[in-house]
């Protein structure tokens, strides 16, 4: 599967998960109503299915690498939706997380790849 398709799946998963969590947050913390909560639960369910479309068969590897995308996506969501002003350290941490995610998901995993047992 191409780097582009893997990346798109990660972005869609982030939108579904972060959006779902945000909707639930709005329902609980901001008294926006149960419709927000129900939509949030549906979005979180969609996140699970989107994540399962990744080509790597190892749940741990996919979710570990997605963690970096989640960190960067959460900061982006905060900036775009909530007007969050990130610090330099937020930016640095986000880049570190994305680099770590890329190392995990795009590292060679076939024969000849070094594995720690």
UniProtKB/TrEMBL annotation:
Give the keywords, sorted: Cell membrane, Membrane, Transmembrane, Transmembrane helix
A GO cellular-component term linked to this record: plasma membrane
Q: Where is the protein situated, by its record's location annotation?
A: Cell membrane
One Pfam family of this protein, by short name?
A: UPF0060
The signal peptide stretch is none
| Membrane disposition | Multi-pass membrane protein
Which family does the similarity line name? Belongs to the UPF0060 family.
Q: What is this protein called?
A: Uncharacterized protein
Q: Where are the transmembrane segments?
A: 6-25, 34-53, 59-81, 88-107
Q: Which NCBIfam families match?
A: PRK02237.1 (NF002586)
- Chief location bin: membrane
